[in-house]
Request: fold
Amino acid sequence: MMRFLVPAGFLLLVGLFWLTLDRISEGEYNPRDIPTQFIGRQAPAIDVPDLFNPDITVKTADMKDQVWVLNVWGTWCNECLREHEFLVHLARDKKIPIVGINWRDQASDAKAMLARMGNPFMRLGFDPKSKVAINWGVYGAPETFLIDANGVIREKHAGSLNANIWEKQFSHYFTTTGKDS
Amino acid sequence: MTAYGHKKTAFLSLLCALLLSAISFNSLARVDIHKFDNPQQEADYKQLVGELRCLVCQNQNLADSNAELATDLREQVYQMLKDGHSKDDIVKYMVQRYGDFVLYNPPVKKITYLLWGGPFLLLVLAMIVIMLYMRRQKQEQPEISQTQKQKIHQLLDE
Reply:
């Protein structure tokens, strides 16, 4: 009995280990994920200056009556670099309205990166002191929220965004008006 | 007081001093410069940053963490206290945004039953395993025959 159980248990552990690592690398599982408190709740306020034009304030109310995406990022974050190309693709090819929050960053670094890799953000708030980040319960970067036309948060993804996650979690909100669901 | 008593008190105070120094080293690990309106506010601040968890470095509280988000969260706690919010308000504010996860002392409810009960469950399981093991060992103890007993006595007497 024991002679059979021990190797079987070991194999089971190896299998679980492999599966979990695979899901982590695919971005489907994040062991440090903190379940968000915001799904189904009204989007919190944004109240920070625009990165390119500090006289303008970026506000949640700017995006009234449309489905939009909020993306929190920084040039210090590698996963943000990894997803950036995909964000550019979403904005350019699919016309997805993305509001960026540049979090805990140097304005000059952020501008340089956008000049080099493209700017997918229709508005871009500058948040060096985590004002927006804390108000939205952000604990890492990148984090992506989906807000419907009623201003309610529907989805959140912590970690790099890719086509796979977009199709599964986000894309269907843009095939409808976003008012009904 | 006897000499023995002196020794004992000396030992105890040394122990206390050591423990206290450990505590103060810990709180010296990080320094923010904050001015408080009154001692109560400062006490509230210290208690809150001790109870709230750093979300980046998930095994530290806000007080011990040097992570940047933790710095900003401490600032948030400080500002809210200065604005006259109560401790409960601030905890509620954090839980609304980060969930019970942000608390080092989460409330007992359905989703945390396993968290609170798990250790006791493990203890009971471990005790059952040990009991089964001991019972088996007892059963496996070989019977000693009369001749063997005689031999043992012989050996012991020698």
Remarks:
- The radius of gyration of chain A is 19 Å.
- Residues 1-31 of chain A form one domain.
